[in-house]
Design goal:
alpha+beta, Immunity protein 43 domain-containing protein
Amino acid sequence: MKYYEIIIHADLPVTGKYPQVKDLKINFHEARALQWGKIRVWKSESDIPDLNNFIFQKGSKLTDIVTNNFVNITSGIFISEKTKSVFNLFTVNGNFYPISIYELDEKRSYNFLWYESGAKSKIDCQASVFIEYQSIEELYGEIVQINDFEDYKVKFRKMCIEKEGWDIVPKILKFKEYFDITPAFGIGLICNENVKNAIEENHLTGFLFKPLDIEISFE
């Protein structure tokens, strides 16, 4: 099965404005908007800020996946009801929360798909393959054995000292359970070919896809 990175289309002919969602109807303090900056350490629903008072910038086009000023695609996306209905046909590594985005005074129903950045708890590091990589010259180095993500951080810091400009990237990612749509460490949000085809067949707007050059596998 082929897998693809999901990219949010940001070109103005598609979105009208960038980002499409930039502000709130209520003040940032009331909306607990500072919580968006802490999204990587959210532990429960009580950490989630207000989701009912977003505003489309004037001149924005209403796409099915929305550029926004609140969350990066590594941790979540804003999607339409139509997109959620398509995603519900698949196994998604994440949780859906209803949100409201206002176009002028008209409330639009969307959804926030929130997920663990990199899906670190779902990846079997010892069964995955990591390799040294230098992005400027696109050079690969040696395979690096990673036991867990704490081990990754130690070896990454060591690499930064010893080989400036190098990184440790996945070549094979082995997940502990199956997903059709999931964040993936070192990549972003990914989906398989069945999801990509469903998005295209349902004419969902705002989606771009980049084929992955690494292997994705599941237990």
